[in-house]
Write a sequence for this structure.
């Protein structure tokens, strides 16, 4: 810590500019993407029958879980490894290794995810499963490409590869298809979605930094295996977040009637959008935080993450309050018969506060290389929350499942704060200093926290270990 100079204590213009450009552009595209997701779900509910509409909403959830499994934590790991690379050849090696790994993993795992997501489908299920599997593979590869661009500072290309961009384009194409066809089926909608995802992947892949000499070495499997091993612990973070907070959509499809499943799925898809600010902030901050930690500017990392948590929590509180007040009006755009989902939406949205309050702790565990601590926190949370959710669905109903889902989300993200305290001595939690937080994020506030951060020597040694860096973990990771 004492090695800091006056120059390093100042806010770096490049760092601030990257965060602001990334966050600003991502926010604009995310807002449009959220509107597109909402309108797409409205379109599906209005043009499909109850069973097919519930299946389509389940597929939207699968497009979150499928890439999480297929990437095995490699998205966050790619950000760390590429950002820490010291030459174009090393960048190319890491990019190719991560893309190969996620392609193989997603091809192997996507059929199972697709089968689970389409439990309510009774007609043409084999074709539906095949389409959803293809969508998951394409989504997995494209999101990894987006992470690579985030790590290299190509913000516009990174944003173009996000699921928000895909949602915007897919809505436009779906609207045209629905208008020109007399009847629209689930297979039609999924085919359009898959075609859009393929086209977008082809576009965003054109500027990938894969021309380095190291990317063409014969032993291609060595860096790929190292990337998979390094990302495995981070996978637990992504998988746990889905199982606790999002898999309830599938549980509803298995346990409830078609109408109740549709009500719950609609509420769950809408509730996912409440925490968009936290997700965007984490994506924008993770590459910067990884580089700052590697440079030894650990106080700055805590300051940025704490400021992000403060602002995100404030916005999420406002959104949750709005949901409680306006949920019936929001659901009315889907048509008649969905008013009953209002209370489920409100409860699930409230659970999202856990992500806003404690989400920065997950980022800190990632950038400091504490994947094992994060995985342990996820494991405990899943062991508690999953049985509770299953029992709520089987012996209760949609309301009980919503309560279990909201409580499970809060438990999961609170466990990250506990893990941060145990591994690093403190956690980046929200404060009441809203103005100061805004200034820190804008690059106009103090560069460091008020108090020095004492990180245990063992934690620093693990984060700075050359072996860890070589494996691709953060030494020095958001649809």
């Amino acid at each position: 810590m004492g090695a800091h100079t006056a120059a390093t204590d100042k806010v770096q213009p490049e760092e601030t500019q990257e965060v602001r450009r990334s966050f600003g552009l991502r926010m604009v595209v995310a807002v449009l993407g959220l509107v597109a997701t909402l309108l797409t779900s409205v379109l599906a509910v209005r043009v499909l029958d109850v069973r097919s509409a519930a299946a389509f909403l389940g597929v939207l959830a699968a497009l979150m879980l499928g890439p999480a499994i297929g990437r095995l934590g490699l998205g966050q790991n790619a950000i760390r490894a590429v950002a820490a690379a010291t030459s174009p050849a090393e960048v190319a090696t890491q990019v190719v290794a991560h893309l190969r790994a996620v392609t193989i993993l997603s091809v192997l795992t996507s059929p199972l995810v697709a089968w689970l997501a389409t439990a309510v489908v009774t007609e043409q299920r084999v074709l539906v499963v095949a389409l959803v599997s293809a969508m998951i593979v394409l989504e997995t590869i494209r999101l990894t490409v987006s992470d690579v661009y985030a790590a290299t500072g190509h913000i516009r290309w990174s944003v173009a590869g996000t699921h928000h961009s895909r949602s915007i384009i897919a809505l436009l194409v779906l609207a045209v298809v629905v208008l020109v066809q007399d009847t629209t089926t689930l297979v039609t909608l999924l085919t359009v979605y898959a075609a859009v995802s393929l086209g977008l992947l082809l576009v965003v892949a054109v500027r990938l930094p894969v021309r380095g000499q190291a990317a063409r070495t014969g032993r291609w499997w060595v860096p790929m295996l190292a990337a998979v091993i390094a990302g495995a612990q981070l996978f637990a973070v992504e998988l746990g977040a889905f199982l606790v907070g999002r898999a309830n959509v599938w549980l509803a499809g298995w346990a409830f009637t078609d109408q109740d499943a549709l009500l719950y799925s609609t509420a769950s898809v809408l509730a996912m959008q409440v925490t968009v600010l936290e997700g965007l902030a984490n994506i924008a901050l993770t590459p910067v935080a990884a580089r700052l930690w590697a440079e030894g500017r650990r106080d700055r990392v805590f300051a940025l993450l704490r400021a992000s948590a403060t602002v995100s929590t404030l916005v999420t509180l406002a959104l949750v309050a709005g949901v409680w007040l306006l949920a019936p009006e929001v659901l009315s755009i889907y048509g008649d018969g969905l008013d009953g989902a209002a209370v489920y939406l409100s409860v699930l949205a409230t659970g999202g506060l856990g992500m806003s309050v404690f989400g920065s702790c997950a980022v800190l565990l990632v950038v400091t290389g504490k994947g094992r601590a994060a995985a342990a926190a996820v494991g405990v949370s899943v062991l508690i929350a999953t049985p509770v959710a299953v029992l709520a669905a089987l012996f209760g109903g949609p309301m009980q499942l919503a309560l279990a889902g909201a409580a499970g989300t809060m438990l999961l993200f609170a466990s990250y704060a506990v893990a941060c305290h145990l591994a690093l001595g403190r956690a980046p939690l929200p404060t009441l200093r809203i103005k100061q937080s805004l200034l820190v994020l804008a690059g106009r506030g103090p560069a460091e926290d008020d108090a020095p951060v004492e990180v245990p020597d063992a934690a620093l040694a693990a984060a700075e270990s050359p072996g860890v860096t070589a494996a691709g973990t953060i030494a020095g990771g958001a649809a």
